[in-house]
Records
---
Amino acid sequence: MPSGRGFGGDMAAAAASANSDMFDEIVMAEERFHGEGYQEGYAEGSHVGVIEGRRYGSLHGAKIGSEIGCYLGFALTWQCLLQKCMDEKNSKKIRVLDSLIGMIQKFPYEDPTYDKLQEDLEKIRGKFKQVCSMLNIQSDFRIGTERSSLAF
């Protein structure tokens, strides 16, 4: 019967198509696995990058906070010491100390996205060096674990 032959022909075509699909799956497996691997790697890398970025930001923020805290403690101590014997020289030093204290108090601790953060930090460092120069004090303090001195 012609219809039986057609049916057999359809089965042969279906078998060939199934073999072709299987072959295509094997050939395309590398590409599919490459894409899946890329997606998994990207997701894992993003996760690890966020963790590493948070750790770096915390460490760097802590260093900046320690540095600024040291400057503030230094300035407040000298301000207190100089106010005990007021004269013209001390008056000028106190004005510069007040300026440093004001800069530190205006520093945006809470906003890491502040676009002038590094610029303001450099201004504070410069003012600190100016104060040290006026007080005839070395300004290269070091904070380190290997010795007990301060450094920035």
---
Amino acid sequence: MLLTQHSGRIPGLFVVVKKNTFFTMPETMEDKTNPELYLPHPGVRGMTLLNREAFKRTVVVPALKVKKEIVHNVLKSLKQSVLQRPGLKRVVEDPEDEDSRFVILDPHKVPEFSLGESEQQVLKELSVHPEVSKYHLELTYENFKSEEILRAVLPEGQEVTSGFSRVGHIAHLNLRDHQLPYRHLIGQVIMDKNPGITCVVNKTSIIDSTYRNFEMEVLAGENNLVTKVKENNISYELDFSKVYWNPRLSTEHGRIVELLQAGDVLFDVFAGVGPFSIPAARRKCRVFANDLNPESYSWLLHNCKLNKVDTKVKVFNMDGRDFLRGPVREELSKELPLLKEEQKTAFHIVMNLPALALEFLDVFRHLLVGEPCSPAALPTVHCYGFSKHSNPARDIQERAEAALGTSLAGRCSTFLVRNVAPNKEMLCLSFQIPADVLYKRPCPDEEKPASKRLCTSQDSSEEKVLS
């Protein structure tokens, strides 16, 4: 930064000598009370192709000239008034006096370029002249936050998007229609301002309810969507363009896994790449994990091996209904009659497909045949759903009751997972399947024993099981 002596009335005033400036309009802004003091150059409004040089701007800020040996004491004594903006130096050299430094003050705390009585008293005790100088500070693209840059570029009054979901090295945006003309600039800014982000994508379609993936456009960076993420101290690898992954569900994954004890059995109906199944297996649970998406199935197998639980998780590539009517029914039919009263094995069924999972609950109607097991052993279902209802908990419960054909009053709990969009909530409904729903009792005059009628070889897909 080049500095020259200013010829004004205040001694020690310095001004930046700028070279190769993009704009010819005046660049020094001296509005002492302007709340937009740290916004980029106004000429960037409407920019769609990022030009970092165009963001340069010079602002006038208050500064104190002090001897370099007492700079630390001044900073400590005036910490409420000193410039605190990240990326900007609070102390700069005095080009005319190597024994002195300029301490930059916050223009919003010292708006009239004069200090209050208490600050002046502190400086007097430190033998510092309390006169405040005007320092011409150059701001560049690097000094602005992403939100400030985007607010300066997009049309005034329009919503600015600076938030995103991070999936490994990928930043995932959901841009509004009015932001699309600026999408490549937005992507580049997000990548510039967030270390480790090397690819920025924007969702271009709604989530497909079959495979739970969506089309996306790469806005900036490398076209590499295979990434590695870490959640709750467990690593997962995945192709973000072909499978479902939502970092906002980390807390919910952990909540459910904390309910499990060693020896419990987990049936993960819509397992994805394994955020419920793999941590459950690491807690020494027996896990049956299923996903219809062939890509999710492949990455689920890969992540089981990556986390060394491939011998503890049985993986299936089936429709959710077929999985419940096949492997889940077979396992419950085999295990529940063998449970003794003192055994504490619990069976959990996780159904994390909030757009459709409630519609699958009718599968539990008379899924098993025979005498019911003890009430404590009845499987617990954790079913996810979306609701736009004014009372989302009641809405989710009533839809589940309609599918099951019974009331869950006093027999279920609802947990608010997250707000998905305005007036749209994601909830988890947990309940033990009532015995009169789960079991069909055999008629007394039927000749075939119930145990043989439990055979579900037609529904089973053993060929697809990877042990």
